[in-house]
């Protein structure tokens, strides 16, 4: 009898304890974030999407080399002497046309290793995470702003300049050879005379 | 015609209340778990969610299992709802409205609500499903057991009130005379009625099979018990009847212990309309407490359920009944 009464008393007490707990939670504001309407602020340094300020890129390809999964593809063409591409916002002179700068976000593993090597701080993670796509190809982000025509023009120009250089070099080399040959023949003559 | 309108009023009330209560249940459960619950349908805190759900249920296919007993299977939800709806006829909603002011109101109510057990067993057996049948058997055992303490606690109220007519019981509880300020509600008239109320409340929770006594349904072990094979609007009617039953027993508790439509402030705010509002507020308070309990307490085991009923509630209610009778004789 005493046992039963004790048990009943504990039951009652614990029921009220539990109901107190639930009442407290009922009155608390809920923790739900109504996602499309509200968003959590991302922590600083969150890695969610890569972005390139193409105006600041000097085409050094350090990020491409740093990438462990090869998701960055850069192609550059050296600028000819008659054009001045200007300087980046950090003051580095730009010497290359960036003909392609593609980042494949479907390959990216968000390691952030491409960001520190950049000398002009033009590649960075931006807090943007709602870019899912139905087609994998749409995840290939192209940052180069040159048109196809411009690219071919620039390439041809660069090739021409290169050829010119090559020719000049060859010529210079031939001249040198000729000089050398001249000298050696003269020396031989001297030897035979002596 | 007027009679028909008079008779349909509680139906509208029950349907409106059920839509509200299901929404409230979802909101209460959500906020207790620090969630938000339905928020989208209808604008303000998803108030139209249950209306949308009901429209969906109406469109659903009405599936009847091949080996089910078709007639019983089809009629079980309607018997269940008819039983709880019929019981509303003796509830005095306000000083101006009562379906039928018969002088055996309480007896009629208890008798009609016993039909609930029958319809649950009907649905359970007709489903031809072992989980349903187990659920139905549990319901039968539970409801038969818990009717004893319910009736004993109701009987103790009747000893104090001296009438079986719920309207008369409500009328005698108007006014504020006890200790100068307390309303004349029966629970304040006799100290042992507090014990009777506790027993009554535990028993009605068990009778409307809510947690912690929701063994007939127990979705986690019996896959919803007798409701397993039901779908679409038939299931919806089961749901409706369950909530109607909850309200019915809560309102009965309000009449028997908390003055029915009597205002807590004596003659202040006590017209027929105010009476209805007070009455519904009292009923909904109990409904809310039942919801609150549901999201707090775990479920009892079958043997614990029976032990509580037969070894604690029934003896205590009998002793309490004798004590109340003695108190009434001496004072």
From TrEMBL, chain A:
[4Fe-4S] cluster 2 binds at residues 67, 108, 111, 114. PANTHER family: NADH DEHYDROGENASE UBIQUINONE IRON-SULFUR PROTEIN 8, MITOCHONDRIAL, NADH-QUINONE OXIDOREDUCTASE SUBUNIT I 2. This is NADH-quinone oxidoreductase subunit I. It catalyses: a quinone + NADH + 5 H(+)(in) = a quinol + NAD(+) + 4 H(+)(out). [4Fe-4S] cluster 1 binds at residues 57, 60, 63, 118. The gene is nuoI. Keywords: 4Fe-4S, Cell membrane, Iron, Iron-sulfur, Membrane, Metal-binding, NAD, Quinone, Repeat, Translocase, Ubiquinone. Belongs to the complex I 23 kDa subunit family. It comes from Fodinibius sediminis.
Automatic annotation (TrEMBL), chain B:
Coiled coil: none annotated. InterPro entries: NADH_UbQ_OxRdtase_su1/FPO, NADH_UbQ_OxRdtase_su1_CS. It is found in: Cell membrane; Membrane. It is a multi-pass membrane protein. Its EC number is 7.1.1.-. Its main location: membrane. Keywords: Cell membrane, Membrane, NAD, Quinone, Translocase, Transmembrane, Transmembrane helix, Ubiquinone. The keyword Metal-binding does not apply. PROSITE patterns: COMPLEX1_ND1_2. GO terms for cellular component: plasma membrane. GO terms for molecular function: NADH dehydrogenase activity; oxidoreductase activity, acting on NAD(P)H, quinone or similar compound as acceptor; quinone binding. It catalyses: a quinone + NADH + 5 H(+)(in) = a quinol + NAD(+) + 4 H(+)(out). The chain crosses the membrane at residues 6-24, 78-98, 104-125, 146-167, 187-206, 243-261, 273-293, 305-327. GO terms for biological process: aerobic respiration. The keyword Translocase applies. NCBIfam families: PRK06076.1-2 (NF004741). NDH-1 shuttles electrons from NADH, via FMN and iron-sulfur (Fe-S) centers, to quinones in the respiratory chain. The immediate electron acceptor for the enzyme in this species is believed to be ubiquinone. Couples the redox reaction to proton translocation (for every two electrons transferred, four hydrogen ions are translocated across the cytoplasmic membrane), and thus conserves the redox energy in a proton gradient. This subunit may bind ubiquinone. Belongs to the complex I subunit 1 family. NDH-1 is composed of 14 different subunits. Subunits NuoA, H, J, K, L, M, N constitute the membrane sector of the complex. PANTHER family: NADH DEHYDROGENASE SUBUNIT 1, NADH-UBIQUINONE OXIDOREDUCTASE CHAIN 1. This is NADH-quinone oxidoreductase subunit H. It comes from Fodinibius sediminis.
């Amino acid at each position: 009898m005493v046992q039963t009464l004790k048990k009943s008393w504990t039951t009652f007490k614990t029921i009220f304890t539990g109901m107190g707990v639930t009442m407290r939670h009922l009155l608390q504001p809920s923790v739900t974030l109504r996602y499309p309407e509200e968003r959590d602020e991302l922590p600083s340094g969150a890695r969610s999407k890569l972005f390139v300020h193409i105006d600041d890129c000097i085409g050094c390809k350090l990020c491409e080399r740093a990438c462990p999964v090869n998701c960055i593809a850069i192609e550059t063409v050296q600028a000819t002497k008659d054009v001045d591409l200007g300087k980046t916002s950090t003051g580095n002179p730009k010497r290359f046309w960036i003909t392609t700068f593609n980042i494949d976000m479907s390959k990216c593993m968000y390691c952030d290793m491409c960001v520190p090597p950049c000398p002009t701080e033009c590649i960075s993670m931006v807090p943007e995470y709602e870019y899912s796509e139905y087609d994998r190809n749409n995840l290939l982000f192209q940052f180069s702003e040159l048109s196809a025509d411009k690219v071919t023009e620039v390439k041809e120009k660069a090739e021409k300049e290169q050829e010119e250089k090559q020719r000049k070099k060859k010529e210079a080399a031939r001249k040198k050879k000729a000089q050398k040959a001249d000298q050696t023949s003269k020396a031989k003559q001297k030897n035979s005379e002596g | 015609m007027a009679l028909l309108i008079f008779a349909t009023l509680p139906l509208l009330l029950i349907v409106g209340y059920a839509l509200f209560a299901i929404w409230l249940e979802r909101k209460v459960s959500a906020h207790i778990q620090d969630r938000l619950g339905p928020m989208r349908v209808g604008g303000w805190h998803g108030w139209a969610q249950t209306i949308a759900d009901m429209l969906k249920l109406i469109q659903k296919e009405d599936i009847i299992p091949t080996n089910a007993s078709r007639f019983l299977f089809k009629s079980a939800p309607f018997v269940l709802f008819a039983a709880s709806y019929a019981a509303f006829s003796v509830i005095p909603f306000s000083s101006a409205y009562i379906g039928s002011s018969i002088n055996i109101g309480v007896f009629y109510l208890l008798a009609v609500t016993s039909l609930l057990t029958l319809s649950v067993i009907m649905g359970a057996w007709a489903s031809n499903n072992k989980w349903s049948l187990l659920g139905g058997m549990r319901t039968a055992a539970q409801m038969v057991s818990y009717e004893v303490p319910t009736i004993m606690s109701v009987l103790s109220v009747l000893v104090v009130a001296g009438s079986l007519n719920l309207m008369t019981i409500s009328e005698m509880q108007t006014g504020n005379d006890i200790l100068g300020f307390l309303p004349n509600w029966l629970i304040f008239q006799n100290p042992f009625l507090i014990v009777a109320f506790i027993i009554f409340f535990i028993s009605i929770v068990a009778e409307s099979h809510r947690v912690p006594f929701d063994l007939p349904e127990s979705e986690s072990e019996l896959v919803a018990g007798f409701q397993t094979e039901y779908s679409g609007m038939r299931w919806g009617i089961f749901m409706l009847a369950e909530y109607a039953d909850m309200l019915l027993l809560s309102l009965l508790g309000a009449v028997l212990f908390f003055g029915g439509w009597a205002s807590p402030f004596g003659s202040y705010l006590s017209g027929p309309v105010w009476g209805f509002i007070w009455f519904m507020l009292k009923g909904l308070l109990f409904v809310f407490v039942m919801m609150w309990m549901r999201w707090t307490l775990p479920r009892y085991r079958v043997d614990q359920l029976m032990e509580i009923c037969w070894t604690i509630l029934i003896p205590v209610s009998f002793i309490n009944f004798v004590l109340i009778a003695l108190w009434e004789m001496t004072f």
